Amino acid sequence: MASEIYNNCGGELTITAANDFINDTDTISGTDETGEVNRLIERCASSKEALETLYLMFKGSVFAVAFGITSDYHLSEDCVAETFVRLTQVKKFSAKKGDGKGFILTIARNTALELRRRYRKEIKDVYLQTYGEADKTVENSIYINQLLGNLSDKQRQVVVLKCCAELTFKEIAKIMKSPESTVKSRYKKAVAILQEKAGEDQ
Fold this sequence. Notes:
The protein is an all-alpha fold. 66% of the residues lie in helices and 0% in strands. The longest helix is centred in the N-terminal third of the chain and has 23 residues, at 48-70. The model is unreliable at 1-22, 24-31 and 123-138 (pLDDT under 50).
């Protein structure tokens, strides 16, 4: 899939299930992960293999970032494709000094914000499309999104980045360009709201 993005630069990315994004885990682990990601970013403009590796590593996190901002499954799909297209167009990035993961997710956030502004009028409802065999899975997804609808835009972003993308507060603060203490406060307040609303529904 990443090779298709590399070849077409702008073609649509078609995904059959949200879980393909959200449930993926990083393919590189250990103390050298940051250095390896940085080297891959430097190479991805000319290497399909480097782009493919980055795509497999970060498509879940990018989708989570996008969904936290757009609340729209299809726009989040578009954001994943556009993020990796933009990554191939990066001119300046230092493998020695850069924060590859933060760099990719910042591109994702900026792209998602642009898409949301562009298609704001078309976004009317909040749905997370989960393709499961059991009706209960779909019901749970709809219920979760109804709960998230009680949060402010920034609160929802923090919750999705923390719970779906599994980022640290420090990473979220960097992406959202907010103090870490502010991010923690938003998360704590958001969790309290979700617990209260979930309790009311019960």
